Amino acid sequence: GAGVSQSPRYKVAKRGQDVALRCDPISGHVSLFWYQQALGQGPEFLTYFQNEAQLDKSGLPSDRFFAERPEGSVSTLKIQRTQQEDSAVYLCASSLEHYYGGYTFGSGTRLTVV
Amino acid sequence: SQQGEEDPQALSIQEGENATMNCSYKTSINNLQWYRQNSGRGLVHLILIRSNEREKHSGRLRVTLDTSKKSSSLLITASRAADTASYFCATEMDSSYKLIFGSGTRLLVRP
Fold first, then answer.
1. Does B42 contact A31 at a Cβ distance shorter than 8 Å?
2. Domains, chain B, ranges and CATH?
3. Could you say which of A15, A30, A80, B50 would form a disulfide bridge with A64 (CB–CB 3.0 to 4.6 Å)?
4. Does the bond joining B8 to the residue before it have cis omega, within 30 degrees of 0?
């Protein structure tokens, strides 16, 4: 597609529920990133994929967070047993190479845990 | 944790005026990027300046970088109401691919 597509746009989860957030990067983009953006703050890095390989997951806040990109295109960020502090916008970004030129971000998924 | 601090946190100007936003960071960088974010939307890449560059222009945007002071500024000339958004600086450190974002400047351009 023309841009990075994320779904759903909005997700309300009850505390303790598992959620899965999807990212469709631009076709052919090798690098894929997930960021978490709390209200009124800048995005914070969660994890990075190069093709299907997860090269860095140092930003994942706990072992309840898991990301995958099994075929090197679509990626899923899964959060198990959601807690209120997980409420945030989750942004996905992709690029052809890992830098130079900036990244293309999706519109994000706004997760609210109640 | 965020590397960048942006100043001011909020800025309100009249259409036609210039807007200047500043960003400071802590560690050495490979490049610095500016992004715009409209309310409820994703980030849009505006401009990238490499560590060996001092100034860059793109349309009504002018970015400067002072690596000795670890700071950058974004100037938007002849602002328009459509420029109303949050603006973030993001640094990419040496030998890394992560973007470290600042906390952003919320710009309001009054028509």
1. no
2. 5-110 (2.60.40.10)
3. A80
4. yes
For A40, which DSSP code? T
* pLDDT surpassing 80 at residue B2: no
Alpha-carbon distance of A111 to A1, in angstroms, equals 24
CB-CB: which of A45, A100, A105 is closest to B98?
A45
CB A42 to CB B102 under 8 A? yes
CA-based nearest distance B108→chain A, Å: 15
Name residues whose C-beta falls within 8 Å of residue A79's C-beta, 6 or more positions apart in sequence: A18, A19, A21, A64, A65, A66, A86, A111
Mean pLDDT, residues B61-74 taken together: 97
How many domains does one find in chain A?
1
* pLDDT score, position B93: 79
The CATH number covering residue A102 comes to: 2.60.40.10
CB contact under 8 A, A103 and B42: no
Contact status of B25 with chain A (Cβ, < 8 Å): no
